[in-house]
Protein 1
Amino acid sequence: MVGSRPNIVLVVSDDHGFGDLGFRDTDPAVSTPHLDALAADGRVYDNAYVTAPICSPSRAGLITGVHQARWGSHWFTDSAMAPEAVPSLAEQLGDRGYRTGYFGKIHYGADEVGSRACPPHHGFETSFYGLAAHSMGRLHYLHHSREHEEAYGDAAHRHGVSPMWEGTRTVDCERHLTEEFIERTIGFVDVPDDRPFFAMVAFNAVHNFTWQLPQHELDARGLPQHPDFDAETNDYLDWYDGAVEPNLENGREYYLAQLEIMDREIGRLRAHLEETGLAENTIIVYMTDNGGSRCNYGRNTPLEGSKYTLFDGGIRTPMLISWPGVTEPGSVSSSLVSALDLAPTFLAASGRGVEDGALCDGIDLRSSLEDASAPVHDVLHFDNNFQWAVRTPQWKLRYVDPESPARASILQVEHTDIGQGLQLSPSVPTLAGLDETTDLAEQHPDVVQELTAMHDRWLAEMKESAQALLA
């Protein structure tokens, strides 16, 4: 009942565009009735940020509530699951009497089999997952088996067709993963147990390659089948370039089809919680791991930029929180919040907040959830080594090393320009929140100096923390 320790469901999608929600009304082709209903039932955070514009470091911070830079995680090249000295959210909720389940994609870093990155080894009692780090960040939507691994040959690791993991053993799965993840979550919810539960659902939707749809879904939308990577193709980059925007015919339609399936499955889970009487005492949070990917036909309207960039299109997330009896239905907050805030919020909801002296870079959102106008963060920091940014309620300072090889690589492979040099953007009273088409650095050198100094101090703290944690 309301007032007892709530169940918690955290849903994380992959590369979902900020503007690709029905209630945003940016594209009539977007249909997300169940996410729209979740927004109508709770709070929409329009200025919610993840900690990185790519999945691995973003997810590493999310699962702990501690900024991943504290253990030297910044980009694909150095990202990793937090060391044991930094407990995961699942470990902490388990210590507080919650049963824990993980269903979805894993990609914190190298993520070796049996390592701490695997859910059974960082606090999840029940788990069904795929190690996407072994397949260039991808899980095939339809095929996961030894049979398909052998059939794809050298191309298997590019499409992630290896068997899935159930706890510590491998299992085949030939069902659309979006449906399978929710089916597993429902099974977890239904286990007779007096303990409250924490269920984390980490979709691979709507990450590439979105044409991997069941035939009945293709038929329903009048979409053609599209072949996967040809193992005999010599130059993978050329093939990949032909499968990203603007080169893939029906690319936006495939993306929207995967989005609709994910939305439908989220609706199925919510309906099950209603039918079983659990909904009234369950917190549900929806967010995505980074901005929508332009190469994958996601749109971040009205934000500038996309995945890989520190424009807001790369780091703003459509965060929706429903907490019956706490959040005001249909409410919107423009306060600066971070994905790191979820951990201390969930821990507080469990009846025992963050332990004294424990590392935590998030802020308990309960006051904000009760009052949409309540401020949360004064400043947020982002750092990928070759690019960094500082965000305050009034400004955003962003820097990209124009000589960085990463910048050139992203432009070549992902068709995404991350920008270059220093830019100061002002806040504006619109959904965009910032005018990132305007650079006021020359007009406000004092602000540039102040924000740069703030970031330097933050970076020094992160480096000192990393030295201690990794010693």
Protein 2
Amino acid sequence: MQFIDIKAIHARSSAEIDAALAKVLEHGRYINGPEVDELEVSLGTFLGPIGQPVNCTAVASGTMALEVALRALGIGPGDEVITTPFTWISTAETVALVGATPVFADIEADTFNINPIEVKKAISQKTKAIIAVDLFGQMADYSALEAIAEEHNLKIIEDAAQSFGAEQNTRKAGTVGHIATTSFFPAKPLGGYGDGGAIFTSDESLSKDIRAITNHGCKEREEHYILGTNGRCDSLQAAIIHAKFPNFRDEEIRLRKEVAARYTQALKDHVSVPTARSGNSHIYAQYTIRSMDRNSLAEALKSKGIPSAVYYRKPLHKQKVFSHLPTAKKSFPVAEEAAEQVISLPFHPYLRETDQNRIISAVLEHESA
């Protein structure tokens, strides 16, 4: 049994992927090929209202997407950016990479997303932006975060690396804030076969800067008007993601919710299961539960041939790389407790009910022991 059965996901789109790759190999435009444009148009159309596609720039990775977003907003030395300590390091890492200072705010116990109340407490005169992470597959509390941002003149970046395909009160993940980003890392809901990411914005001027930054600051060849980098998404990766996208859009979003519903129905009275905030649809990048004896549960699952994973064992304020920051000296009790209790079960859209029943039985057996 696979934790995420990437082979099963590939099999569903294998013919389309093979055909798309063959086209790239035939035309030989491995950088800035037509597949990149096609992917950007499809994703932007999916996110935007009919006739109003969102501006999309495909990039080399989800991490690159965050870094470019920060740079496009002019965030740098002397600035502070508030984000969550309970996430993958890219979110805070990119803040430091542009010369700004990460400032952490604790999370909500039920959703694992950043807590707007704690965000407000963390604001200083140096605060320029909030990066909200849509952890595990559902969007953060953006109505509250947007009110805070408006009051304090802050920018919002939506880190939708784990939530692409989710919604909040009809708004799709990837459409909130001044800029939104996502990742196509293979384990993500819409995963590629290597690194890849995308940046979304409805601001035309900002979109032009984003595109230029990812291409060495160029609008025209050898005309560099802004400090840029090589952040481009290659044609082969774009071809793969674009070929997979129709099945993701038309089938996998629904199937992910169905698999999650089976887990929740069977486990809700025995362990702490994922909670979707009112108005949210959940895409379940991971199906994450809490256990008071996580290590024992992981061993019990392993003994039955069932894999599991922990996201994230050590909050970012406890990471050595951030130990010099003032925010690292603080305590974030909700994030710290989550880091000690969370465990993610095998999950993907094509998880067979027979396999899922094995997993559920193993969890129930352990929790009732």
